[in-house]
Design goal:
The structure is a single chain. By secondary structure, the chain is an alpha/beta fold. The chain has a single domain, classed as Alpha/Beta hydrolase fold, catalytic domain (Rossmann fold, 3-Layer(aba) Sandwich). The protein has 11 helices and 9 strands. A 9-stranded mixed beta sheet has the order 1-9-8-7-6-4-5-3-2, sandwiched between helices. Helix 10 links the parallel strand 8 and strand 9. Helix 5 crosses helix 9 and helix 6 packs across helix 9. The chain is globular. The relative contact order is 0.15. The N terminus is likely disordered.
Length: 403
């Protein structure tokens, strides 16, 4: 059956042939927001940067773009250059999320420093002029990811449905500053989300709106941490394949975990966690799976998501992720906000049984769990097109009922 299972309580894609880009990547427009001035994206034309070892050539793009994509992405300046060069490539990809009809949706992106001094990348999508904004959705992306790739189509769909959408890249990921793929503290990651979205809630166009937080995979764990730290901060929570617990299929055995914990104190940024190819687990649609890249431990990425973190998990990052999921598992009864949980029933990356455990034990009086039959981990990106839009429409229906 293609129908999802619903529980309710009230108490990869093949690219079109691409032309070579100009020698200078398109310049990004970074508007400012008051009172804090925005920081411009750093852009250096045709940089000479050390290439990252082991990167595979991307089919269907020019030699120049492959050279750009082969850069070492440890630091934000390089990731920003690579993203700028690949914008047009990504917009032409043969995937339903890059074809979302969103005429009139207004987008904006900017950078601000957080209280730790790191530059944080923001992006927003607003309904077309004249359309009343029903509410605001703030996004927390998953491990290794960015809000500038697959989420672009997801955000445009939600914005075209009458909602303001806001997203940030976590420190160390995407276009935000920080060592690529490094999480020093999961609690600090959640604190940064609270800090940045507090600013969004004060923007003139969103002040007074109902605010919802949407977290996917590791972003689901961040979202739950945010809620546990600030229980009254949101009008509702949406979790997509949340990382409430790492599946036994991808969790290192106990002796390895003990070694990892010790080593994470000695060499926290080292990339020593054994890698594991999870493409078969994350993507169900064969056409989308074909373009999936190597997956490392917690999260898959796709070959054209050029600024994602695809290296083996850093030691401290791995330990922080495992520690966070254990903490969340022990506090699920404290989850009290209106709650929507969406999960592929065949997910072998984050366990759908844990989502059911969260649903059953959360103290929320308004909670809904949808398990999508045969769905894999990436129900918003890696499923057949009709399933992807079913999940998106389920999100909109849930929001509409609460705004």
């Amino acid at each position: 059956m293609e129908l999802s299972l619903t529980f309710r309580s009230w108490s990869p894609f093949v690219p079109r042939k691409l032309n070579s880009p100009s020698s200078h990547p398109p310049k990004l427009s970074i508007p400012t927001i008051s009172p804090t001035p925005a920081l411009p994206l750093q852009r250096t034309p045709r940089p000479t940067v050390a290439a990252a070892a082991g990167k595979k050539e991307i089919e269907g793009v020019s030699e120049e773009l492959n050279l750009i994509a082969s850069q070492n992405l440890d630091y934000a300046a390089a990731r920003r250059r690579v993203r700028s060069a690949f914008i047009q490539v990504q917009q032409q990809l043969d995937h339903c999320l890059f074809k979302v009809a969103s005429a009139g949706v207004r987008t904006e992106e900017w950078i601000e420093r957080n209280s730790k001094g790191l530059e944080i990348f923001f992006r927003s999508w607003m309904p077309e002029p004249g359309v009343k904004t029903k509410g605001a959705v703030c996004f927390c992306h998953g491990y290794g990811d960015t809000c500038t790739f697959f989420f672009e189509g997801i955000a445009r769909f939600i914005a075209a449905s009458g909602y303001g959408v806001y997203a940030i890249d976590h420190p160390g990921f995407g276009l935000s500053e920080g060592l690529h793929g490094y999480i020093y503290s999961f609690d600090e990651l959640a604190d940064n989300v609270i800090e940045q979205y507090a600013k969004i809630k004060e923007r003139p166009e969103s002040r007074g709106l109902p605010f919802f937080i949407l977290g996917q995979s590791m972003g689901g764990a961040v979202t739950l941490k945010v809620h546990l730290k600030d229980p009254q901060g949101w009008d509702g929570i949406i979790l997509v394949a949340p990382m409430c617990k790492i599946s036994d299929d991808v969790t290192p055995p106990e002796p390895v975990l003990k070694v990892l914990t010790f080593l994470s104190k000695v060499m926290p940024t080292a990339k020593l966690v054994p890698q594991k190819d999870l493409a078969e687990l994350a993507f169900r649609d064969p056409r989308k799976k074909k373009m999936a890249m190597i997956l490392y431990s917690f999260k898959f990425q796709a070959v054209y998501n050029v600024i994602c973190y695809n290296d083996p998990v850093r030691l401290r990052t791995a330990v922080e992720l495992l520690k966070a999921t254990k903490e969340i598992e022990m506090q699920v009864e404290k989850v009290s906000s209106p709650l929507l949980i969406l999960h592929g029933a065949a997910d072998k990356v984050t366990d759908p049984l844990i989502s059911q455990f969260l649903y059953e034990n959360a103290s929320s009086k308004d909670k809904t769990l949808k398990l999508y039959e045969e769905g894999y981990h990436s129900i918003l990106e890696g499923e057949p097109d009709d399933r992807i839009f079913t999940v998106l429409n389920d999100i909109i229906a849930w929001l509409d009922a609460r705004c």
